[in-house]
Amino acid sequence: EVQLQASGGGLVQAGGSLRLSCAASGFTFRDVAIGWFRQAPGKEREGVSCVTTGDGSTYLADSVKGRFTISSDNAKNTVYLQMNSLKPEDTAVYYCAADLDSIVVITPTGGFCPDYAMDYWGKGTQVTVSS
Q1: 29: CB partners within 8 A, 6+ apart
Q2: CA–CA separation, 116 and 94 (whole Å)
Q3: Whole-angstrom Cα distance, residue 101 to residue 72?
Q4: Which of 39, 56, 88, 122 could form a disulfide with 4 if both were Cys (CB 3.0 to 4.6 A apart)?
Q5: At residue 30, does pLDDT exceed 90?
Q6: What DSSP assignment string belongs to 12-47?
Q7: What is the pLDDT of residues 47-98, one digit of tens each?
Q8: How many helices (H) and strands (E) does the chain have?
Q9: Does residue 31 have a pLDDT over 90?
Q10: What's the CA gap between 115 and 131, in Å, rounded?
Q11: What's the rounded Cα separation, in Å, for the pair 1 and 15?
Q12: Distance of CA 121 to the CA centre of its chain
């Protein structure tokens, strides 16, 4: 059974840091793409970052470039999202999701990682950034 478990959220002050984890099971982890998405109350869901586990290629949304870093530990079947210099506008529920049929493509010049490419979703973890 495919399972994705997001964790690591919490309450931090603006300028602080958090590291989110996405623990995966039930599929061949090294052959998939994992994405992080977020949704604030009353707003649409937006993509944050993605990684393809086979080669470690990464994608970051413009809003988080220079502040967030995504990485994959294939031995632990876990993807991390390191979030630094957090802003109040980063407040949202953060979800991790998996693309198992190779829709996501990440190249040195850009990435294609839409939410509709994802086949499985985990439950979210709340991130709250105070000013």
Answers
A1: 53, 74, 77
A2: 16
A3: 18
A4: 122
A5: no
A6: EETT--EEEEEEEESS-GGGSEEEEEEE-TTS--EE
A7: 999 999 999 999 999 999 999 999 999 999 999 999 999 999 999 999 999 9
A8: 0, 13
A9: no
A10: 29
A11: 38
A12: 11
Task: Provide the mean pLDDT of the chain.
Answer: 96
* Closest C-alpha to 102, from 36, 33, 47: 33
Burial letters 39-66, b for 16+ CB under 10 A, else e: eeeeeeeebbbbbbbeeebbbbbeebee
Residues comprising the chain, all counted = 131
Beta-bridged to residue 99, according to DSSP, are 33
pLDDT at 39 over 90: yes
- Rounded Cα–Cα distance for residues 37 and 96 (Å): 6
| Termini Cα distance of the chain | 41
Which residue has tokens 């407040």?
Answer: 91
Please report, as a single letter, which amino acid is at residue 53. T
